[in-house]
Design goal:
single chain, alpha+beta, PH-domain like, 2 domains, 31% helix, rod-shaped
């Protein structure tokens, strides 16, 4: 196992949420080689957690941090050319393009993203509303078993009948 980069270590201590787990990391850069302005190259680490994909660079003069929730990723582009690998994540509001030279790390990032994207989310189970007729049947069972009195049954029955 290789030593964790300073960028990943700082991300772990300063940016990692308590609900997250780091799944994969790779060292590389965002921006364009020899680029300037908003296209400037920033060397750092790309980190895939159980919740988001993030680029993080901890520098002397400042930090560079870009992240995208995994659930917002609509598509992934992967390119390889002359030893350089580019992983581009697309969402409706943002793109993050990360470049590295490590084939295994690139593959690990992609697999980690896909494993989270492929995990079905548990939707809250909505209890189906019982109809007044179904509730009347249950009310009758409660009366028959002695759980509620005849008077209680009649009051609730009138309320339910009013709903029909």
């Amino acid at each position: 196992m290789s030593k964790e980069s300073k960028h990943v270590a700082k991300f772990r201590s300063e940016q990692l949420k308590s609900s997250e787990t780091i799944l994969a990391t790779a060292n590389g850069y965002i921006g364009e080689a020899m680029g300037s302005g908003s296209n400037k190259q920033h060397n750092g680490s790309f980190i895939i957690t159980s919740e988001r994909a993030a680029f993080y660079r901890k520098g002397i003069l400042g930090d560079v941090f870009e992240s995208m929730p995994i659930t917002n990723i609509s598509s992934i582009d992967r390119k390889s050319m002359i030893g350089f690998r580019t992983l581009t994540l697309h969402s409706s509001h943002n793109d993050i393009s990360f470049k590295c030279t490590d084939k295994q790390a690139d593959e690990a990032l992609f697999k980690a993203i896909e494993s989270v994207r492929d995990t079905p989310t548990l939707e809250p189970i909505q209890k189906l509303e019982e109809t007044p007729v179904e509730r009347l049947k249950k009310l009758g069972e409660l009366k028959e078993s002695g759980v509620i009195s005849n008077e209680e049954f009649e009051v609730k029955k009138a309320e339910l009948l009013a709903l029909i």
